[in-house]
Amino acid sequence: MTLAERIPDRSHPLPRAEAGMRPVRISEVPVRRGGVDAVLATRHAGARRLRLNYELVGPEEAPVVFVAGGISAHRHVAANPLESEPGWAQGLLDPGRTLDPSRLRVLAFDYVGADGGIDAPIDTADQADAVALLLDALGIEALASWVGYSYGALVGLQFAARHPSRLRRLVAVSGTHRAHPYAAAWRALQRKAVALGRLQCADAQGLSLARQFAMLSYRTPEEFGERFDAPPEICNGHVRVAAEDYLDAAGAKFVARVGETAWLRLSESIDLHRVDPAGVCVPTTVVAVEGDRLVPMSDAVALIEGLGTRGRLRVLRSPYGHDAFLKETDRVDALLATELFGSGGKFQFVARTRAHSGDVA
Length: 361
Known about the structure:
- There is one protein chain.
- By secondary structure, the chain is an alpha/beta fold.
- It has helices spanning 3-6, 124-138, 151-162, 181-199, 203-218, 221-227, 244-255, 260-272, 297-307, 324-327, 329-341, and strands spanning 31-41, 47-57, 64-68, 105-109, 145-149, 170-173, 233-235, 238-240, 284-290, 311-317.
- The chain is globular.
- It starts with a helix and ends in a 20-residue tail after the last helix.
């Protein structure tokens, strides 16, 4: 029997969680957290020995869903028995949600280059190939779905194009087949802020400023108008506007957990990203947000046109712009329920595993 014969028909939605999957208490959910040693042939940095750090949470026989976020996201998506701290997408994995890891098996990893160990261009195709190596090591033949937000959507599109037999369905939120020139210009200025900080021996200040610029591109004028509509103040002889405390706090929080090299190379990776929509043969839901200044609706429509019958467009209207995935928890959860499980919910997909190879800690 070939691999293609063992993978269910991709035209079906995932099973609903209640169809044959018993919900369990979070304290009982199996968790695998560790690293896999691998050699990755990168596009621009040659063959690299890497440690692929991952977290896999959920019942052993449940469908495996890969969850991937922005460039600062990591393997810890939500609290679990091994790590009680909230993850970067905690609300979307709470009990009863569509991605509840007591009913689905949720897999995530740290992006290649997230540790600052590669000071060379990193392609989204490298990330996709790294995920394929991780699946090999974990003994997972195919993913039931990929839910990707921002950079995670870009990597998901690459994975769907490069490893179609290993994915049944893709949900790409706020990410398309290319970097829009306006968004690329934003990121170029952010990288210059980091470079200027390094020249002045003020690396942290440069990265903090870059993050503050980024926050303006993630959110919308409407949100700032509502939250920070207050007169400026004069502090120590200088004018300070209402949003500055918020931006300073965002920059400081970011600097505390992300290194300059990692951020620079992953920021570049977004701008290197290119995927031919015609090469994506996996059923794909593209989620666009009205007001997203980094991924405009026109690019989402162009991607859908390129996908043809394989694509489906969903639109969210939100004052949170590019960050809507992380802020509009209820609405995004409802959308995921429809796109991943459909209305019937009878078709069963069990993630088949085989004896894993490689170094898994």
